[in-house]
């Protein structure tokens, strides 16, 4: 057994991700803004939220939704002003809430002054802020393929046979983390924001900072002869040293809360990432999300078998125990809605969503809700590919057509897996545009807002929103807070085919969580159930000694 993990201020908190473009528009331009977030702080406080992660609001050309930053020290006018951001910080502080921003430092925008100077003078000081390389055999320097498809190399404007590297879109040149000047620029910027009052950061795509600077070719894994950039990322060592330096020069000084977006981590490195001396406070547990991934395009993706979902959750919970804490998510701005992914079709209703929420929020780790999750927002059907905004979705649509799918089939594939499913405007009420904007929304509002909206659920005692509030109150209650924040995780009754059950245990006290994902009722008999009381359920429940029966889609929490 590992030594106890030191308790930190964030371990018992509930986080909520805001996609500002789609949260609330107060000036009628169809795009959410900082005033919209300020206006809804009381709603979030009432829900039980402590930490707000706000997706990028820095100045940006928005080629990739603000993840292409042209000025790290400024708020994009689309969202408001720095004065409004300062007001948001102050208003959050009044409510004992903490603000996280996105930290996007693997790459910047090609409009950033650093890149503009580098492209104008590749041999000058700023040329070494990026990865410039000569072409090879009349083509790019290597066969690396970007995450968004196509070569990871783009010709430097006005330069013959000189290319720059971009793991993402060509408008997002990768920063050279081998250059001490780049590191100093980044450290200074991070500290500037922490000094301003940020509680920390969600750290974007950070594993990509470690490159093989020789940029060799890798065995092709696509018909065009390219190889995914992932192959290079997984072949190199040394990212840990860079992350520890980043932590030492910035986060450590402020006791900042950091959550890493980490793919491609080796399992044996878990303690290095989230242990007591780890690079980050926590990292997202993406393992359930990855279960639907097929080999290649979205058209190869699949429904997730319940048995795999359960075993994956159990595995990651147990692997992290005694090491650190994971951040548990069902959905985010890069994923479809969780209810359409993790619930079987017959359970995609309010009762099933309450069950899924129960399982997720009471796991060991820090729960991250995504805007609209608390009211059960769903994937949004689009009439045509033109209604999508996401560049990745349009590329996947084209891939599905190339693979022989009809336009309608390709559209249905996008409806299941598009990132825009999580980006449709927040459904506040049943007025025009779901109360999101008085103007024309930047992205289509899901037509089901008339049935699914926050106002309706605030007024209904048995709604999903009210259930989320009860779940969060239970997690924070004086009686169970310590068990549910710091208690160990133990799987239960794995012999029951469609039952996901576990207990949280601390100092001889425990809480049992049970969820029936099946079509049929499930009965459990166990002495563990004796002398228990129901703490929460999405259905009326009677405990009979050591026996309990769960209806389909029922969740039950007993103490």
Could you walk me through the main structural features you see in this protein, from its secondary elements to its overall organization?
The chain has about 550 residues and is α/β, with parallel strands linked by helices. Among the domains are: about 15-105 and about 260-380 and about 450-465, Glycosidases (TIM Barrel); about 115-165, Oligo-1,6-glucosidase, domain 2; about 485-559, Immunoglobulin-like, CATH 2.60.40. About 30% of the residues lie in helices and about 15% in strands. The chain has 17 helices and 22 strands. The chain has helices at about 35-40, 40-45, 80-95, 115-120, 180-195, 230-235, 240-255, 270-275, 285-290, 305-320, 340, 350-360, 390-400, 405-415, 455-460, 465-475, 480-485; strands spanning about 15-20, 50-55, 60, 70-75, 100-105, 130-135, 145, 155, 160-165, 200-205, 225-230, 255-260, 280-285, 325-330, 365-370, 490, 500-505, 510-515, 520-525, 535, 545-550, 555-559. The protein has an 8-stranded parallel β-barrel. Strand 17 and strand 18 form a beta hairpin. The longest helix is centred in the middle third of the chain and has 17 residues, at about 180-195. It is globular and about 80 Å long. It starts with 14 loop residues before the first strand and ends with a strand.
